[in-house]
Amino acid sequence: MLSRILLLVGIAALGFDTLDANAASGDTIIKVSYQTKTYRTRPHPGPGGALNSFEFVLHRNGTVNEKYSMEGANPLSKESNRELGRSSRVSLRVVSDIEIERIVDDETSTHRIRITLTGKSCVAEVSGELKPGQTEYRGWTSKYGQEAFFSRVEYHDIRCSIQ
């Protein structure tokens, strides 16, 4: 299935000349961004939100270079390399011939980004679910630049593109 996904996104990317610094010819870049709307319960209770952006560079050998950023007063930026299908706290897996999914298995919740290829474009679904017995999501507050807990996390303005 991985080869089918790489073939589909490779075909979809024909006509795009832009390559990221981490991408080589034949690699595919998928970008996903979304806005969160949150209610922070601690510290500093109150509403919040941030723009979150991911860039996935899918290499033909099954590895993925992942860049993540969160905008705000105290922005957050991370970069990592992963293998499709390899399980860990953060994993990327092939769901079907046209879908891949990023899963973060946190202490309090599970966060998912499911990317579906649709011709020369893609659609992303973003969701978060509390684990049984949990009442708060644990995450980062870019407003205060620290870990925080949230009673509500909503995802809006979800965008996906293939380059």
Structure characteristics:
163 residues, mainly beta, six-stranded antiparallel beta sheet, four-stranded antiparallel beta sheet, 1 helix, globular, disordered N terminus
Question: Can you give a write-up of this model?
Answer:
This protein has 163 residues and is mainly beta. The protein has one domain (2-162). Helix content is 7%, strand content 61%. The chain contains one helix and ten strands, in the order αββββββββββ. It has one helix at 2-12, and strands spanning 28-42, 46-58, 63-70, 76-83, 90-96, 99-105, 109-118, 121-130, 137-141, 146-162. The protein has a six-stranded antiparallel beta sheet. A four-stranded antiparallel beta sheet has the order 5-6-7-8. It is globular, with a radius of gyration of 16 Å. The two termini are 20 Å apart.
Largest sheet: 6 strands, antiparallel
Mean pLDDT: 86
Strand count:
10
Order of helices and strands: HEEEEEEEEEE
In angstroms, what separates the terminal alpha carbons? 20 Å
Helical content (DSSP H or I, runs of 4+): under 10%
Count of discrete domains: 1
